[in-house]
């Protein structure tokens, strides 16, 4: 049977178009906008959770000793530099005496003068006492008048006052001399403990005031991490809990430590709880003060409860929950969550039961009308 030429062309066109149309429909259903959403799922399990807190802190020295002069002066010499190890009692430097020796000499001269004045006042007091006693005896035998006796009594009182002032002046001058001698002995800057020189705040020739630090020494065995934790997750944080410290300069090394104390005052601005973390063993070499550190504090293990991966949590209409599989359909389950651990699992207090299945990852946003296709893993997502 022979078809007209036009009919043959029509049949050939249909034979080409129909497979293409079927292929297009197949592609649209499998991978186009009509395709189901690929998801990975997880089954709710009853598991214990060992929650942990993560915080950021800086390396600080618990004990810092600021060493400087007790009087204003000029730095004469400094024998140490930043990073030097020093021993207790080691002389770190010396202050310039400037005019201190001249002041001591002048003070000694003033003391000699005051001693002479004291002797003179003592002699005048003895004379006034003798005269007063003599006139008292004369008055007893009516050998003088009441006015003369009163005058001698007044002279004795004046002499007594002058003697007391001379004695006090001598004591004051001796005390000032001892103070100057103490200053002379304090010219040396001495390390009170063994440690490391952390800062050198002045160089020879620099004029400093009393109490100003010239050298700062730290105790290397007293390093701690001044750490901040989010108040929302800080429940359970307590002194004595084990911790792991990762210094920024040693990302591959986790150093053991523990919580030394929780600060009684939190940061109201950043809403953070402050804590001090100490090393079990001081790291070698010692990290510089101010270096950032990541701190993980391990809390006590919680009883078994339904748990899901953190990655399964979604927020829909302002509610926190997870997409739950109900047969072949999806339903959003609002959840009340418990504590989470650093392994990426969180306990569910209410909203899911053991054995329920929830969506963990999806290649696009879900809703209750989404068609899904369960896969082992999604491309580009770690298993």
What's the short story on this structure?
With about 375 residues, the protein is α+β, with helices and mostly antiparallel strands. It folds into five domains: about 1-30; about 35-50 and about 305-375, conserved putative lor/sdh protein from methanococcus maripaludis s2 fold; about 55-60 and about 220-300, Efflux pump adaptor protein, beta barrel domain (Elongation Factor Tu (Ef-tu), domain 3), CATH 2.40.30; about 75-95 and about 190-215, no CATH class; about 100-185, Helix hairpin bin (Helix Hairpins), CATH 1.10.287.470. The protein has helices at about 5-30, 100-140, 145-185, and strands at about 35-45, 45-50, 50-60, 65, 75-80, 85, 90-95, 190, 195-200, 205-210, 215-220, 225-230, 240-245, 255-260, 270-280, 290-300, 300-310, 315, 320-325, 330-335, 335-340, 345-350, 355-360, 370-375.
């Amino acid at each position: 049977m022979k078809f007209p030429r036009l009919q043959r062309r029509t049949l050939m066109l249909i034979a080409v178009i129909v497979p293409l149309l079927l292929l297009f429909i197949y592609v649209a259903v499998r991978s186009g906008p009509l395709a189901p959403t690929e998801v990975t799922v997880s089954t709710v399990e009853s598991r214990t959770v060992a929650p942990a807190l993560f915080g950021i802190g800086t390396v600080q020295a618990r004990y810092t000793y600021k060493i400087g002069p007790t009087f204003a002066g000029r730095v004469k010499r400094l024998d140490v530099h930043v990073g030097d190890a020093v021993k207790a009692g080691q002389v770190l430097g010396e202050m310039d005496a400037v005019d201190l020796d001249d002041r001591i000499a002048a003070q000694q001269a003033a003391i000699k003068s005051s001693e002479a004045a004291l002797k003179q006042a003592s002699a005048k007091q003895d004379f006034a006492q003798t005269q007063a006693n003599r006139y008292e005896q004369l008055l007893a035998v009516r050998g003088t008048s009441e006015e003369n006796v009163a005058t001698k009594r007044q002279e004795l009182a004046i002499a007594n006052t002058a003697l007391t002032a001379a004695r006090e002046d001598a004591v004051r001058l001796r005390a000032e001399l001892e103070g100057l001698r103490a200053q002379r002995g304090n010219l040396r800057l001495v390390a009170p403990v063994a440690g490391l020189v952390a800062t050198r705040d002045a160089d020879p020739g620099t004029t400093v005031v009393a109490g100003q630090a010239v050298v700062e020494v730290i105790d290397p065995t007293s390093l701690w991490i001044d750490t901040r934790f989010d108040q929302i997750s800080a429940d359970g944080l307590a002194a004595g809990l084990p911790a792991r410290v990762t210094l920024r300069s040693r990302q591959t090394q986790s150093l053991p430590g523990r919580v030394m104390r929780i600060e009684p005052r939190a940061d109201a601005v950043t809403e953070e709880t402050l804590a001090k973390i100490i090393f079990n063993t001081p790291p070698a070499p010692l990290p510089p003060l101010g270096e950032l550190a990541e701190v993980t504090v391990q809390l006590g293990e919680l009883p078994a409860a339904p748990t899901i991966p953190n990655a399964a949590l979604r927020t829909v209409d302002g509610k926190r929950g997870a997409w739950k599989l109900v047969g072949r359909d999806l339903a959003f389950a609002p959840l009340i969550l418990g504590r989470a651990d650093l392994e990426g699992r969180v306990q569910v207090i209410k909203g899911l039961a053991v054995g329920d299945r929830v969506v963990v990852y999806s290649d696009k946003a879900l809703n209750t009308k989404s068609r899904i296709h369960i896969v082992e893993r999604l491309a580009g997502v770690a298993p």
